[in-house]
Amino acid sequence: MENLDVLVLRKIAAWRREGKKALLATVIRTWGSSPRPLGSIMALCEDGAVVGSVSGGCIEDDLVYRYTGGSDKDALTNGAPPCLVRYGVTAEEAYRFGLPCGGTLEILLEFNPEVQTLEALVAALDQGQLMERAVDLRSGQVQQQPLASPLPLRIDEQRMLNTFGPEFRMLLIGAGQLTEYVATMALFSGFTVTVCDPRIEYRNGWSVHGVTILEDMPDDVVTQFRPDSRTCVIALTHDPKLDDLALLEALQSNAFYVGAIGSRRNNQARRDRLQEHFGVTPAQLARLRGPIGIYIGSKSPAEIAVSVMAEVIAVKNGLLLPENFDVSHAKANPSEYAA
């Protein structure tokens, strides 16, 4: 599944290219609890079609009603400067729009954004570029520029600036059954997934659509992949000849997550090999995750995949997981987890 922001931008660009009226909504402020984070976007077409989300659904319904058939339809039909709308100011309104208790959010609406600017943004994201989009709050004029690192949404009296990044990428080493489960979960979590396995018997049995399959040696693939801060690399073959060399390259990259399947003993043996034979430094080894996943008592490949994806998403979102979530800690202290 495509990254949601890219999907929204691609869809509204297509609507505008077809000559349809459309608005782009961005969550710019929240107070209390809110269903969607700052910078979340949705697009609304004049025919009522919606892609993306700024809430749990009720606010989207209200925007559809107001701007495709209600009192504010002219703003979309004829075009209007950007405007701010606020939901959940009162307890009654929060209940009506399905917001959490005390939740209030403010949304910036842009009417009929320029198609050339939208297409340029989508093209840059498709090429893996991190982009900043600045909207003039009076005129609606948009300026866009590449960024070296993501920035939080900012807004003042003149402009709103929002960062859009390319899709998160996942490179999986090995095309076994566990990889199929991890790949499936990664796809519906918005990752672009690539699987590398030089073993033809494993590649021939692959059954997950939407995944790029490569047959080259894993270390060469990692080098060509050029992992960046929106990339994770996970070794799943249990074969040191394939896993170790891929991890060696990945640990020298900017990948936000590098991990390998295996028991505590196997992972320690891997760390010893990487340090003794390949000169991997203690600082680099500190980045290597293994045993991977969070401890949920998983046994089956599907449950292990859930555990792995939970850890990947937590790291992606910048969370520091408690020690008792760690698989090694849990297995070393089983009495802490007894029913």
Descriptive key words:
339 residues; alpha/beta; Rossmann fold; 2 domains; six-stranded parallel sheet; five-stranded antiparallel sheet; 15 strands; elongated; XdhC_Rossmann_dom; XdhC_CoxI
Q: Roughly how much helix do the residues carry, as a percent range?
A: 25-40%
| Overall number of strands | 15
By DSSP (H or I, 4+ residues per run), the number of helices equals 13
According to CATH, the fold-level topology of the largest domain is Rossmann fold
- Order of secondary-structure elements: HEEEHHEHEHEEEEEHEHEHEHEHHEHH
How would a textbook summarize the main sheet?
6 strands, parallel
How widely separated are the two ends? 38 Å
Mass-distribution shape: elongated
CATH superfamily of the largest domain: NAD(P)-binding Rossmann-like Domain
Q: How much of the sequence is in beta strands? A: 15-25%
In terms of per-residue confidence, which ranges show pLDDT below 50 for 5 or more consecutive residues? none
How many structurally independent domains? 2
Name the CATH architecture of the largest domain: 3-Layer(aba) Sandwich
Gyration radius from CA atoms, angstroms: 23 Å
Strand order of the largest sheet: 12-11-10-13-14-15
Mean pLDDT: 89
CATH class of the largest domain: Alpha Beta
Judged by helices, strands and strand pairing, the structural class is: alpha/beta
InterPro entries: MoCofactor_Util/Proc, XdhC_CoxI, XdhC_Rossmann_dom
Protein name: Cytochrome oxidase I
Organism: Advenella kashmirensis W13003
